Structure formats: structure tokens, C-alpha cells
Amino acid sequence: xxxxxxxxxxxxxxxxxxxxxxxxxxxxxxxxxxxxxxxxxxxxxxxxxxxxxxxxxxxxxxxxxxxxxxxxxxxxxxxxxxxxxxxxxxxxxxxxxxxxxxxxxxxxxxxxxxxxxxxxxxxxxxxxxxxxxxxxxxxxxxxxxxxxxxxxxxxxxxxxxxxxxxxxxxxxxxxxxxxxxxxxxxxxxxxxxxxxxxxxxxxxxxxxxxxxxxxxxxxxxxxxxxxxxxxxxxxxxxxxxxxxxxxxxxxxxxxxxxxxxxxxxxxxxxxxxxxxxxxxxxxxxxxxxxxxxxxxxxxxxxxxxxxxxxxxxxxxxxxxxxxxxxxxxxxxxxxxxxxxxxxxxxxxxxxxxxxxxxxxxxxxxxxxxxxxxxxxxxxxxxxxxxxxxxxxxxxxxxxxxxxxxxxx
Length: 408
Prior knowledge:
It contains three helices and 21 strands. It has helices spanning 32-35, 352-355, 363-367, and strands at residues 2-9, 40-46, 68-77, 83-92, 97-102, 107-109, 113-122, 130-142, 147-160, 165-171, 176-185, 191-201, 216-220, 230-237, 244-249, 253-259, 265-271, 279-288, 291-300, 309-314, 327-332. The two termini are 47 Å apart.
């Protein structure tokens, strides 16, 4: 039998967290951690089944590993070359309680406080209490090791009450990307862990140093922007001698801004309009000595008026076989006002849901969650020579001068 065991992250999102909504899941960019770190292969081997047709596989789990889902896929081939496949999965929790850290903002000015929300729950998802330690860390380049290390900036503790929710603040004492590491003992000798990252903006950031790769970043001040609100978009670069083109796009070019040279950190106010719903895209481009660099982010603009509330009530609590059932349907908008709507009603045996749960999609998340970007940006410069996935090189493709035959 050939078997493969994979591990994937199992993040905890409490009720009401933005991450649990259709808009959860990052800034729209693809990072190396999204592919290489996800679905990590922890075992890949071939073994023989015993006389009873069974095989006991033991997979070690590191004591400091985060909450994860371990999945196994197995393939058995018999003597007649017939093949049977199967798979299964199981959640593995690092502690008896689950912990999450989040915030309504993604960046704060240097020297100000970052507001955090801490949530604690048991393995059934019910609110729980505990004392959580929050450690703020920043990345530091280690010249001797030739790699980046994280060092502690500050720490604090927060007591989470029985409601399972508490608020905390950490000072943004260092510029750039900062990481919050949260830990909490669960009372059984194990520790629940969670992480959260945010950006500290410094308008006086230093110019790029020799050997340091040029960087360009876009940050939204809010995870969700309502129609009519003004989003404050942070555009930061370590190349202050070159201008930056920032664009809000989607079904059209909604807005653009040319940030003049000399601005290494710039806050651009962007008005969210109804026609931009359910989302827009932010993009930024800048020419550097290494070529064109860019960054992008999704700007969620959900329209609450598109979300309906549907309720159904029967005229009696119980019925006898053969009786007529009358249902009262009511549809209201996000403000509770009555509104006309087309409603589909299904009547099934409740016992079916004991075999398989209802998988009907949320219509608001299905039709009004994420819209593709139809605006594309191109440049007249030669194409970049890629060094492979997630790599960047400083050389540009030269102009072709010879046109030799390539097929014989």
C-alpha cells in the first residue's frame, strides 16, 4: 500500500470575525507560504498489509505544532493489478482551547497603538476564559547567518472573561511588518497559540540601502469598506526617488493617483462608491533600478442592501397526517424594512440531515462576494527574466538581434 499524509493549517475564526465571512482569506496576493507551507507532506511511504489486511501507521506530531488537519490518502494494488483508493482526515488540536487574534485595521502609524481583539473558545466552539500573553516581534536581518530573525519588541497580558472576547493594544514601536504571537495555557499542561501580523507605517523611513531589494506595499486601513466610506490606503516604498502610480480598478478604472518622488510613505484617501461593489482592486507600480515593481490588494466593498433576511413560520406547532400546512414567509432588507423577493422553499424529511447536512450555498456570498478584475496593466519595457517561482532578478531581456532557424 502506498500512502501519503499531509498537514494543513486549521485556523480558528470566532463568530463574527471577518475571516469567517466571504471576504476572509488575505489580501489577494499569492505568497510562497500559500503553496509550499500549505498541505505539507509529513509522510510518503509504501508498506505491506498484514494477514488481516490492516496496517498501523504512526505519524508523530511535534508538540509545538499549531492546530492542523492531517489527511491521508492510500492506494492498494492487488495481485491482479486492481487498484483501490481511499482517504480520510482528522483535526489535531495543540490544546484544549482555541485562540485567535485579529483587528479591524491592517496598519497603524509608527508610535501609535494597534487595537487587537482576542477570542478564546473550547473545542466545541463555545466561549471560554483564560490569560493570554501577547508578544510583539519584528524581523531583523542577521548578517552572520545570512537570514532574517525575529526579535521581541514588547509584550503584555490580557485576561479574557467568560464571554471569550477581550480587547488589547500593542504599541507599534518599530516600522514595517510586525508580528503578534499569542499564547495561553489551557490548564492541562498544553499551550494554545495564535499569530497576527500588521504594518507600522513610518513617513520618515530611510532610503533603500545597497544590496536591499526595492519594495512596494499597499495597505488598507480597514478590512471592509462600506459604500460611501473613505478608505485610507497606505502606499509605502523604500525607493523614494521614483514616483508611484496607484490605481483603483475592477470593472473600470475607478480612480488613480501619481505619487510624486520624495514620498516614501503616502496615505491616499479613496472614496468607496456604490458602483464599485462588491469589491475593487488596488494596484501600484514603480520603476526602480531593478525594473518595474508592483503590489496589489483587494478592497472589499460589500453592499448591505443586497443582503436579505428571510424568515419562515408555520401556523401551528404540530400537525396530523393529511392536514394542510400554511407557512408565512417574510423578507426584509438589511434595515428590517419589508422588501419583495423570489423565495425557494423546500420540504424534506429532517432525518436526511442526520446523514448529510444541508449544503445550500449562501446566496449573498455566492453572487455578491468577489468580482474579477477586468483591467490589465502593461508596460513598454522588455520582459523580465524570471528566476523561477517567487524569485526576482535584476536583468532585463535584451532586444533580439538574430533570427536564426529554430526548427529543422
